[in-house]
Design goal:
The chain is α/β, with parallel strands linked by helices. The chain has nine helices and seven strands, in the order H-H-E-H-E-H-H-E-H-H-E-H-E-E-E-H.
Length: about 240
């Protein structure tokens, strides 16, 4: 069942119907955005989170992992890379799809470690060229996306410097970073830093317990949204 909701009013109708169906014995598996959870659970609206509400005092720098290559993400990435104290590190999609993902992670890892230790914002982004074969084109690019996701996960898993903030940009990227890179099995949703951009608190079993993960979908926000989030985190960090 696909719910094409344009507002919380739409979601309220859908989630009430689902609750009634469950009372009649129906069972559901949900794959949803954060707004569904709020509606289904009856959580009241609260203000957007401020940077100081999610700061990790034990970390250093900000890590942004950009795996999504939709046009909206690319525009947001371009704006972020022009900000002050931001160090962009391109992760070669061509190397990954050629079978050299581990070697590419080896190259990128010390650059990220150095930027974080210096308190800078390290932006690891996949090269924007999308490598396709005719067969991959018919499969919605899932094969190259999965290979790139695996390589990015390897990078996060091996990282030694704990960032004060971690942003996963893209749905597949955020999911892989959370479950495979950070080993998250249970997280607390603190709220949203922008509409449609939830913030998780990592559970005790995770790589960095208590640390924040900002789940930033690929097509959410205007062209300045990613840059604004990073600026807000820096401002909260200095508060």
């Amino acid at each position: 069942m696909i719910v094409n909701a344009r507002s919380y009013d739409d979601l309220t109708v859908a989630t009430e119907g689902i609750r009634r169906a469950r009372r009649r014995g129906r069972r559901f598996l949900f794959r949803t955005a954060a707004s569904f959870v709020r509606s289904y659970s009856g959580i009241t609206e609260r203000p957007l989170l401020a940077g100081e509400e999610i700061v990790d005092p034990t970390g250093s720098g900000i890590l942004v992992i950009v795996g999504s290559y939709v046009p909206k993400t690319t525009a947001q990435l371009d704006r972020l890379l022009t900000a002050e104290a931001v160090e962009g590190v391109e992760f070669s999609a061509r190397a990954v799809t050629a079978g050299n993902g581990d070697a590419e992670a080896d190259r990128v890892l010390p650059l990220v470690e150095s930027a974080l230790r210096a308190g800078r914002t390290a932006v690891v982004y996949t090269s924007r060229d999308v490598l396709l074969t005719s067969r991959m084109q018919s499969e919605s690019n899932l094969e190259p996306s999965a290979a790139i996701s695996t390589a990015l996960v390897s990078l996060v898993r091996r990282l030694q410097t704990r960032p004060r903030f971690l942003i996963g940009k893209g749905g597949i990227t955020s999911s892989a970073v959370a479950t495979q890179g950070l080993g998250i099995r249970r997280a607390t949703v603190l709220g949203q830093i922008l509409p449609g951009v939830p913030v998780w608190r990592q559970g005790a079993e995770a790589k960095w317990p208590g640390g924040s993960l900002i789940v930033f979908p690929g097509n959410v926000g205007d062209n300045n949204a990613l840059r604004e989030v990073v600026a807000q985190l820096k401002q909260g960090d200095s508060a």
